Amino acid sequence: MLTLGTGCLGTAHFVSTVARSLARAFRYSGLIEPPVGSVPPVPLPPFCCSSRWARCMMTRPSSVAISPRREPGKVSLVYDARDALVQRNATHRATSTILNSDSRCSTAATNRTGAGRCRGSTSQYTARHNRSVLCAVPGERFLELQPATAAQCSSSAPTSCIRARSHTTGAAEEGRKKKQALAIFFEQHAIRIMDRQVRSAGEQLDVFRQELESLVAIMVSCCHRGAIEATGLSLSRVVRHAVQLKEQDPTLHRTVKQVYCRWRDYAPASPDDFRENRGLIWMRHCFLRHDTTDLREGSLLRDLLHHKLKLGECALYHERGGQRVTVEVLWLHQLNLIARETALNESILPHLDELLIVALSHIRVPRWCVRNAALQLYASCAQKLTGQGQQQCDPGADWPPAYTAFEEVACKATRTIRYMIRQLDGMLPAPTNGYRRSKRRTQPDHCPTIPFQLLVLQFLSKLEYRGYGQHHHPEPVAPSSATPCPPHLEMVGKLRAILWQLLGHEHDLVRKLAARCFAQLHDYATELPALLDPLVHELFSTRGSVNFRHGLCRTVLACVQRYVTLCRHVQRDETARASQRTATLQRVREMVSRHWHHETSGTAPFRYRSELLGLLHYLGFARDSPVLEALVLNRTAPNAFGQAVLVMQLNQLYGGAACTVSPAGVVSIDQALIDTGEPCAQSTALPYEVSLEWDRELDALEAAEDD
Is the pTM of this model over 0.85? Predict the structure, then answer.
């Protein structure tokens, strides 16, 4: 029971009383009574929706008196927040209303029967519960609580008096600002209480707890993203300050943990709806992001990972082949926030393996909300290992650089790489011979495989094998050898075998990423030069599927481009670099000229011929070369798929619309329409990028019209 009256008890008592009243009005059941009519009012500074208002509240002298009994005739405000925050009863929904006028505002808790009004140049608020109404006039720098008349309650509120729960856009913005002002006040006063290190004053500690729970209640009950983030900043500063004072005053830190533990096991009504529970997730993160001292026993983050979620057991279950959901949607989003937090890098790196395994296992769950949360967690964790891609463009490079070594990632995330290898190996088609069919693990029919393969290949494409320690083990080590083979060498060998089979995948993007990964997982200095000749021979002599030949053609081009690009860094001057590039391309051209005769099939799809054209053009074959005519032009096609792309590339190569395609798929070149000038430079456009083919004709037509 609080009664405002005479007596100078100091600024701290006044601010504590106001803070307690606001906290109880917002979160708890409170009882505030107006003063007796003969008691003079209490001076109060003007309010404003900023931190200046909170600082002003703490610096102006005031007077407060506490009355332990309730006298008749006094108006009281009783507020129960359970219906508003937990049950969300439509007939009794409480809102936090802060009315702003002339840079002065005040706060009250209102329900469906409450009203807010502003009169003249002063700011007033009225909070009515059933028949009890409180009215404040801070414009005169006096807080005078008195019963409001029926005329005041029935008067319409102006545009500045907007409920925080209004559904209009302007009302949502006003509500965000008002909640932010309330959060700033609670933050400033809570930090002031902690700075004073009130250990024995249980009343002040109770005010601190109420303010902390009021900030939590604002975040949990609000759906506006701006209001959640603004309140979260205030809550984060309060929690961080309490953690910093943990050694001096453990009571404050213990209070923070008690408030968090009350909401740790809270189960919302819609556990799969992220937008509705965004405030709950961000509120928990505000506690977890600061209480992470070396993940020692008793820290909130350690308690979450080891005891609440049991992350290690979940990862072990999925490594053994488990398919069920072990981490719910909201906790996956919670782990994503933790993984994205830069301040938690040192704390989260030991658990990066487990987080990646949990994310990869949940990506294949049929439920979209689980897949979406797992995908975000996987992206955040993968970026910790591979780093963010560089935006700088090197025009002289034919191959995009990779800044992360496979050996380093294999040492940091060994379990993750092995899990990826097992999953990719299980997704490969079973071979025809029966002795391996039983050993290969089959995947469930309801689990999509292509999205998982794309994610893993995209991750592996950002890594490159640099041959660390290869000079110690140039060849595979026997099992009985005294010096065992490093784990990353075994992983590289398995991945190369898997990628070789993925070159024949039915999905075009899988083949493209597999070709890039295959080139990245070979050392450019020792392995790529020796690999080029066998690859070229396999390209023209294989009798495999068309998809495999298409992927193999991309692999040859990727290996040549990577070798040419990385060899630039060995030479010092531009002349040596140009001669090195010319010598490399000349050597590969000789390989193609030596092996292309093994191509006996006269039928090839347009897509495969288009890829061959890109390879031959990059190697420097002339457009009238017999190799190009035999492999690209004078061949039939089983269908017309990809015909337009090949025609555009040939027209760009020959400098005009000189290509015609017969019904059988044979391409003929009209010598009269060929540009007699130098061949066009290599195009940097994508294979499927549409380019104008009749630029010369359009220019000539425009010139004729001008004449």
Answer: no
